[in-house]
Specification:
Blueprint lengths: L1 H48 L1 H9 L10 E10 L5 E7 L2 E15 L2 E10 L1 H7 L5
Antiparallel strand pairs: 1-2, 2-3, 3-4
Length: about 130
């Protein structure tokens, strides 16, 4: 009879330990998801804050004035491993006329500055540039 009680107690302790470990893992996973969600929201805010700069970047190469509308693809926002935020978009509703930019932060003293760099698709480049004479 005592062996049965001892075995039951050991099984109960093992089950409790397994449940506690499972709850800890689940909590860690939920914390990671929440952290990732907040980080994504911050990146979206950065992109929205710099929409005008992104438009200026795209329009700066538009020698033929073909750019009528610029659409930013908010689902494409990603963190750049080298720092900054990467985002894609397209022009005039045509996804083949695409561009990609990186928004990076630089601090000059206490002042925060944003740098926009990136590239445009070859099809968009051909439409935007004047031919050589």
């Amino acid at each position: 009879m005592f062996k049965w009680i001892k075995r039951h107690r050991i099984i109960s302790i093992v089950l409790v330990v397994i449940v506690v470990i499972g709850l800890m893992v689940r909590g860690a996973i939920n914390m990671k998801k929440e952290s990732d969600r907040k980080f994504q929201e911050e990146m979206v805010k950065e992109v929205k804050k710099n929409e005008k700069s992104i438009e200026e970047f795209v329009r700066s190469s538009d020698e033929n004035k073909v750019v009528k509308t610029i659409t930013i693809d908010y689902d494409s926002i990603e963190h750049n491993p080298m720092g900054g935020v990467m985002v894609d978009g397209y022009v005039n509703g045509d996804k083949e006329l695409s561009f990609g930019v990186i928004i990076s932060n630089n601090y000059v003293g206490d002042k925060r500055e944003y740098n926009i760099s990136g590239g445009i698709s070859s099809k968009l480049s051909v439409l935007m540039r004047r031919p050589y004479k």
